[in-house]
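We were asked to recover a plausible sequence for a given structure. The inputs and outputs are reproduced exactly as logged, with field labels preserved.

PROBLEM: sequence recovery
POSITIONS: 495
GIVEN STRUCTURE:
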């Protein structure tokens, strides 16, 4: 593609060595990926600044450079394009380079503190039940149909990778894409150049404040998504920040706002919820009709996800009969309110809950479903929002009958210091707390506390397959650990 074609949608401050008819064969923001005919985009980062690597990219063949800072040296054979924000420009350039692939699909972006992953999988299952080929971008995997595509460890990849994935999805015949859009991704312009048809807001609760510094900044990052939406914004009205978002986006007259929740007064709401370990029955109510449905995943918070998914599906003319079938056959989402199939006199649940709100909702849902005691094993991440540790401890102490505080990716911090901060919160509510630093041993100990009819809740890890330590990252599997704990107990009872 000619450079001049790529630059049409950019606000350009200055061009040096005006050779805009040169052919661009590749876009990159890592100088090591540069080759002959590349356009190198110099992005300021948190660890290093791409402007420092411009000469390296040029030495590897880069024909043009996008930059936002003034440079000390300009080479005559290279085109230099100065913009106000090179990170912002990257997504726009990438979208153009790959033929604006999002315009060929119906794209739904989901943002919020909790629920994004489950909701993307729910939407994908509904639309595939309706006969569509779907893509998914999210925390656990990126998916094209059933094929797993590496997400490179990010819920929302860098904007260049987003457009690469979208192009592959388009080429593979995807008609619909369901995408988790993280606050980091929005703040860092990773979805620039994506044409969103629908935006869904799940909730906003304490998380990532180590990055955003304040709830207001966190909210403003999330809100950016809804100004990129073309067809409808679907917003949880039960959430106070959702109500605020409704007021803000209502100013966009061309894009309707559709509200949902568990309370009357919204465009869609659920009532008559009946909880069970196999799922939840509920009645969906609109201004025009009611429908009895069954969701094949337990938990009240999953009903919120289901309502949002139903709205998005109905807006795309998916018949309610197809939606009903899809919800009733919805497979569990890895590490989300996942009830393990184990031979034990107690139940075992694995969930990704790693924020105060998600932990509270998890424990409240478990309490509504199970009658036995709740034995909770969990920890808090290192190098993350320290303020939430005692808060999560208080929630654990209030809603669980026995709490075992252990490690969960301590990273560069002292694991015992993290545990102490959590325990301080637990002890405000109960003295039924124990500490076991090594997570595997913490789960073994938690299992040993369980009586017949109890439920062992393992929170925080969910789908993750690693334990991040100070000097190394270790393979870790919560499912294997839980099953090994049950096997140990069984062996002990037999001896």
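RECOVERED SEQUENCE:
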């Amino acid at each position: 593609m000619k450079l001049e074609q790529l630059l049409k949608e950019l606000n350009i401050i200055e061009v040096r060595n005006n050779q805009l008819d040169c052919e661009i064969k590749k876009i990159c923001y890592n100088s090591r990926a540069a080759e002959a005919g590349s356009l190198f985009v110099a992005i300021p980062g948190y660890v290093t600044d791409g402007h420092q690597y411009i000469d390296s990219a040029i030495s590897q063949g880069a024909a043009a450079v996008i930059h936002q800072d003034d440079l000390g040296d300009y080479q005559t054979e290279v085109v230099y394009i100065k913009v106000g924000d090179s990170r912002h420009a990257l997504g726009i350039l990438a979208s153009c380079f790959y033929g604006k692939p999002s315009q060929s699909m119906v794209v739904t972006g989901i943002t919020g503190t909790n629920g994004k992953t489950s909701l993307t999988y729910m939407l994908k299952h509904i639309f595939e039940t309706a006969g569509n080929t779907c893509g998914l971008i999210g925390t656990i995997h990126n998916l094209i149909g059933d094929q797993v595509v590496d997400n490179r460890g990010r819920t929302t990849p860098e904007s260049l990778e987003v457009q690469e994935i979208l192009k592959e999805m388009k080429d593979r015949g995807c008609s619909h894409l369901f995408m988790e859009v993280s606050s980091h991704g929005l703040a860092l312009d990773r979805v620039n150049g994506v044409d969103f048809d629908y935006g869904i807001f799940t909730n906003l609760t304490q998380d990532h404040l180590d990055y955003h510094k304040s709830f207001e900044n966190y909210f403003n990052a999330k809100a950016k998504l809804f100004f990129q939406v073309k067809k409808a914004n679907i917003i949880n009205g039960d959430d106070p920040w959702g109500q605020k978002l409704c007021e803000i986006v209502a100013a966009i007259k061309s894009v309707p706002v559709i509200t949902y929740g568990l309370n009357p007064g919204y465009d869609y709401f659920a009532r008559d919820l009946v909880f069970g370990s196999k799922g939840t029955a509920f009645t969906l109510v609109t201004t025009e009709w009611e429908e009895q449905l069954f969701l094949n995943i337990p938990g009240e918070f999953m009903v919120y996800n289901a309502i949002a998914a139903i709205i998005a599906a109905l807006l795309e003319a998916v018949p309610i009969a197809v939606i009903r079938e899809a919800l009733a056959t919805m497979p569990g989402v890895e590490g989300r309110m996942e009830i393990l199939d184990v031979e034990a006199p107690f139940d075992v649940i694995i969930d990704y809950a790693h924020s105060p709100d998600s932990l509270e909702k998890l424990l409240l849902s478990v309490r509504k479903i199970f009658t036995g005691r709740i034995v909770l094993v969990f920890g808090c991440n290192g190098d993350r929002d320290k303020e939430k540790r005692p808060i999560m401890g208080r929630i654990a102490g209030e809603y669980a009958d026995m709490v075992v505080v252990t490690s969960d990716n301590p990273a560069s911090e002292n694991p015992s210091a993290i545990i102490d901060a959590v325990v301080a919160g637990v002890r405000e509510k109960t003295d039924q707390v124990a500490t076991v630093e090594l997570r595997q041993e913490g789960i073994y100990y938690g299992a040993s506390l369980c009586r017949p009819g109890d439920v062992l809740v393992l929170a925080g890890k969910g789908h993750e397959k690693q334990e991040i330590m100070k000097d190394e990252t270790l393979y870790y599997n919560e499912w294997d650990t839980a099953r090994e704990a049950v096997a140990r107990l069984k062996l002990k009872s037999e001896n």
